[in-house]
Amino acid sequence: MPLVRIDVQQGRTTEELRRIADTVQEVMLEVFDAPPRDRYQIITEHPVGHIIAEDTGLGFDRSPGVTVIQIFQQGRSEAQKKAAFAELALRLDKDCGIAPTDLIISVTANQREDWSFGLGRAQFLEGDL
Predict the structure, then answer these.
(1) Which is the catalytic residue, given 2, 35, 36, 100?
(2) Which fold has domain 3-114?
(3) Is the pTM of this model over 0.70?
(4) Known catalytic residue: 2?
(5) CA spacing 20 to 30 A to 42: which of 20, 23, 103, 122?
(6) How do strand 40-46 and strand 3-9 relate by DSSP bridges?
(7) CA-to-CA distance for 117 and 124, rounded, in angstroms?
(8) Reported confidence tier of residue 81, pLDDT bands at 50, 70, 90
(9) d(Cα 109, Cα 129) in Å, to the nearest integer?
(10) 62-79 pLDDT, tens per residue?
(11) Which residues have a Cβ under 8 Å from the Cβ of 40 and sit 6 or more positions away?
(12) Contacts of 100 (CB under 8 A, 6+ apart)
């Protein structure tokens, strides 16, 4: 159950934002083996200039299309993470027009006990999931 935060600068249409979210979800299902209907995404738009993203010395020129994706997950391998990075860059470029140099992705791991999906219950710990 990856929880995905997608941060972009303002200027995209609702349809463009949905396409970005759908593309990310496709990768979560295919590469991270997320179960069907396991979709938790938060899209935040920021005023232009409110995402400051330099290039860590890699020589990238960032555009106003810079997109930051944070994935909170559990149990994915190094190979899955590398594959997700590559697949997200490929598909978001092809399907959404986000240049690979404008894409920043961070994957953070947590544990089953770190999740509650509602009702104030720890579903993994209490045997609901």
Answers:
(1) 2
(2) Macrophage Migration Inhibitory Factor (3.30.429)
(3) yes
(4) yes
(5) 122
(6) parallel
(7) 9
(8) very high
(9) 19
(10) 999 999 999 999 889 999
(11) 1, 2, 3, 4
(12) 89, 90, 92, 93
What amino acid occupies position 23? T
Kindly list the domain boundaries of the chain, sorted by start residue: 3-114
Structure-token pair, residue 96 = 């959404």
Which segments of 15-84 are extended strands (E)?
Answer: 40-46, 67-73
Q: What pLDDT does 84 receive? A: 97
Cβ atoms of 99 and 65 within 8 Å: the answer is yes
Amino acid 75: pLDDT: 87
Q: How sure is the predictor about 1, in pLDDT bands with cuts at 50, 70 and 90?
A: confident
What is the rounded distance in angstroms from the CA atom of residue 60 to the CA atom of residue 47? Answer: 21
What is the spatial distance between Cα 3 and Cα 38, in angstroms, rounded to a whole number? 9
